[in-house]
Specification:
The structure is a homodimer. By secondary structure, the first copy, chain A, is an alpha/beta fold. Chain A is built from 11 helices and 12 strands. The model of chain A has no long low-confidence stretch (mean pLDDT 93). Chain B binds a DNA duplex through helix 2 and helix 4.
Chain lengths: 321, 321
DNA sequence: TTGTAAGCGTTATCAC
DNA sequence: GTGATAACGCTTACAA
């Protein structure tokens, strides 16, 4: 910047004003811009941030981006931030509470303007001077949470299965015991079944005790004992749905002819091809956009504590029609 | 930091030394550390970077992270960087040459210590003061390129298909006309077929002219005219392989009984479950690790211009055995 | 309207 | 070994 000032024959202050779009004499502006281009000058955002306390960077904290749902979140958050002239720092935690906490710590050293986090740590220490928006996990008011309408999605899944002719349906879920918004999927499903007076069952596997593969044993066991009498299954995630479909197919049970399956997430093959199964689609793009909006909203404490975005059903080959 | 110094009754310089592990009187160290903890003091990395010209941040430039191959790259690069105490800034380009260039520009404003990029822009302007490591695209010496052994992978695919009993094999590929390391997949495949004196054909669809779906027409056309005489297909990507499998299945052609298919990448369902097809697996973790290693190697100009990492074959249901 | 200078939080170079 | 003090590159009153 000093060089630019010298080359343009003006002072630092003038260059600064030009770079920030502050009105300045026309001829000065032209000279400065020419000099800046000539020297290929790039503003140093960190030095600037040192003064302004604005770094135009946001941290995204995720368990990982291996899983398509997470990578889609990251993709859309990154794009939404870029559109606003912000950059994204990515932190991966592997779902470890300790790592999650250390990320929040590290982030503070890095002077970001805010954090968007999908975390599991029950008592994550947030600092009140750093805007934080949570995905799928409700903290407290002052920390807005963005999630899809899990309850509505559960109801929708039941509704679809029953309308597609299922007589006895089931809800399969695995995952942590950590309470989260996703729990509401099951609640909505049960509710809808009850209100329709439909026959249903819930099978819940705790990931910490049983791996997803345990579902195979359960299914085989029930088939052998003749108690596998479902013709419709709602799985808590697409991943589980695809797994269950696989197991059933191996057992000679046809999907969707004998058993229809609906998953949750809206996972597509390679991120953009067909849905991997019939599913309740989370509005990931809107969720990401909403997170960014909330993060930048003037007064985080007067913001809705929970934003619930609408889901929709999508056919993906594991249901009839 | 000023507060810490005051609280500990020492000068700024002393606090700085403590924070940087520079030897200092025992009693002073203890006092400073206590004060720092008390005040929950966090070093400001940007102010530090202003002085040291080291920000402990690296930029990763990718087309997107929607596609499993890209998201896996991002995941491993991020982990490798974290392990070294670095943070990762993610930039998504959508494969647009202009956006790619503007990313490089923006990155310069952000004082990162280096860039890892998977780009398509033929004449991307790099600055020689910023270490750059390229993935899958060779620029020039001074800019190391990391890729998997595409040539060897092509040969391996041909070898596998032929050993598994195929009589006439084909190479299907789509994608840009932009030359890149991935082109060598086809070269290796042809080479191996020739050296084994095997019957083979190459069908290449340029993405800019035809979408992947165009392969459906080609296949249907050949089936109708009775010229679909392959019993083994090597596809340039897993995505294409899965698509081709789908088309064949719709046509009543059985995979792998009638036609065996091998893809390229090593894509797994949900990032960690089974392979989506039989495939040549790219060593993504090693690639990411290598990128980071190279980026931090003392003298980038004296580094190998191209690092080629070994691939391996993995069974994924679309081949026999 | 432009130039000057103080200061953002840190490190590094000195005398002490 | 410790404590002032001058940078680092930028913004922003304030003075010219």
């Amino acid at each position: 910047m000093k060089d630019v000032a010298q080359a343009a024959g003006v002072s630092l202050g003038t260059v600064s004003k030009v770079m920030n779009g502050i009105p300045v004499g026309e001829k000065y502006r032209v000279k400065v811009e020419a000099a800046a281009k000539e020297l290929n000058y790039q503003i140093n955002q960190y030095a600037r941030g040192l003064k302004t306390n604005q770094t135009f960077a946001v941290a995204l904290i995720l368990p990982g981006i291996n899983h398509p749902f997470f990578s889609e979140i990251a993709q859309h958050v990154c794009q939404a931030l870029t559109r606003r002239g912000y950059r994204m720092l990515l932190y991966l935690t592997g779902s470890s509470p300790e790592v999650e906490q250390s990320c929040v710590q590290m982030v503070r050293q890095n002077m970001v303007d805010g954090i968007i986090g999908l975390t599991y740590n029950r008592d994550l220490q947030l600092t009140d001077d750093m805007p934080f928006v949570s995905i799928d996990r409700h903290f407290s008011s002052g920390v807005p949470c963005v999630s899809s309408d899990n309850y509505g999605g559960g109801r929708l899944a039941a509704e679809k299965l029953l309308e597609l002719g299922c007589r006895k349906v089931a809800y399969f879920r695995n995952g942590t015991t950590q309470p989260g918004e996703a729990d509401k999927r099951g609640v909505g499903f049960e509710q809808e079944c009850r209100s329709r007076d439909a026959d249903f069952e819930v099978i819940w596997l705790n990931d910490e005790e049983y791996p997803m593969e345990e579902f195979r044993n359960i299914i085989i066991d029930r088939v052998n004992r003749g108690t596998f009498d479902f013709d419709g299954i709602f799985c808590s995630t697409d991943r589980l749905a695809v797994f269950v479909k696989r197991v059933l197919t191996e057992l000679g049970i046809r999907v969707p002819e004998d058993v229809q399956i609906i998953g949750f997430d809206g996972t597509r093959r390679f991120g953009e091809d067909a849905y991997v199964c019939s599913t309740i689609v989370q509005p990931v793009a809107t969720m990401a956009e909403t997170c960014v909006d909330l993060l930048f909203s003037k007064d985080l404490s007067r913001t809705p504590a929970l934003v619930c975005l609408p889901v929709e059903y999508a056919y993906g080959g594991t249901t009839k029609e």
